[in-house]
Amino acid sequence: MTEMERLEKALLPYEKRLRAQERFRKFLGVKEVEQPTYQRYITGPVERFEKTRMAFLALRPGNTYGEELRKKFKAQTGYDRHLIAPEYEELEEEDRIARSISQAVTRACGDYEPEPFPITPLEGRLEVKDEAIISRLIKKVGLMFGADIVRITELDQRWVYQGGKISHKYAIICALQHKPSLLNLAPSYFSEASSGDSYSRLKIITTQLTDFIRGLGYDAMYRETRGSGEPELTMVPIALDAGIGEFCRTGRVLSPEYGNNMRLKAVTTDLPLLKDKPISFGTHEFCMACESCAKYCPPGAVPKGAPSDQMPNPVHNNPGFKKWWINAEKCIIFWGMNRKKWGSCGGRCMAVCPWNKPMNLFHNSVRWFAIHSPDFLKKLLVWGDEFVYRRKKQIDK
Ligand code: SF4
Ligand code: SF4
Question: What is the largest CA-CA distance in the chain?
């Protein structure tokens, strides 16, 4: 057996997973397209966004964009910031356990900031003879490290926050599904844990991918994207460029496999790669027929109806779009409204999304129908989802 045959054998399970993903998307009729479908929402020039305007960062003391938001937050929650940990003795037993799980799984995504491995010098660098082969290798290794989806795009500098400098040509996007049993309890410390758990595992996956590429002799760096950290990239459009999914009503990426029930992280690199194409599978049309996320978001932060050019608050948003705008102020204030039960919402808008179903024959057939059916049948599917899952608007407090 040659060295390359041994490598192929070692990574065969991940090659099979890639092929299964490709077959699945083909079965659903997911199209690869030249331009991302979010182009339909762009109405003017899009400037790089100043990250300190993000509602999350604006809440920090001293942030000049956050004076109004901090006042509103204090008035409605009774304290200054949503990330203040509650006293454990104030919590009921179940919530102590959930809070403790959440803290345990979240630590790595904030505290794990390793210096990446040195880049292998030129004489030891792997020569890239075929970008398609090396891209396939990166995807297989990314899956082996634990990602659920790995795709590649060229980094569009519009999605690097103002003042940031990333000269790498490519971004490798890793997506990871939340643990549904945790997410489905949103809002709660359990759903908060589902988010922290995914971000921590993505941090490990992306640092490993970074070290792997640097070992091959090319520059690479894992990128911070969370609002609670020091974000470098705005993750949604980059993942849309890479074909992870399409833009949906929650302002997130909705993938054919996991709906919007996933978190994303990126590695940027100068390793020569083959970029993936964006995809199209009718998410806009489905979201027009479905308003579950808007209906069940407790503070009403997700909009109903058609995309709009009316931004909820120009301070925290970038103009140039006619889209579904999330009211970040309402969302983040809600996160702070019941610290005895949750520290962040954890995403009820994701938990109620009809796309977030297990991958099995029944649900895959429904997915196909959701993509290919006329609008009135899409509405019927949404009604069926609400009926079967007995959704209710009130939340457990
Ligand atoms: S995270 Fe919660 S509060 Fe924020 S938009 Fe989603 S459901 Fe609404
Ligand atoms: S809940 Fe419905 S409207 Fe919201 S993102 Fe999911 S499919 Fe779209």
Answer: 69
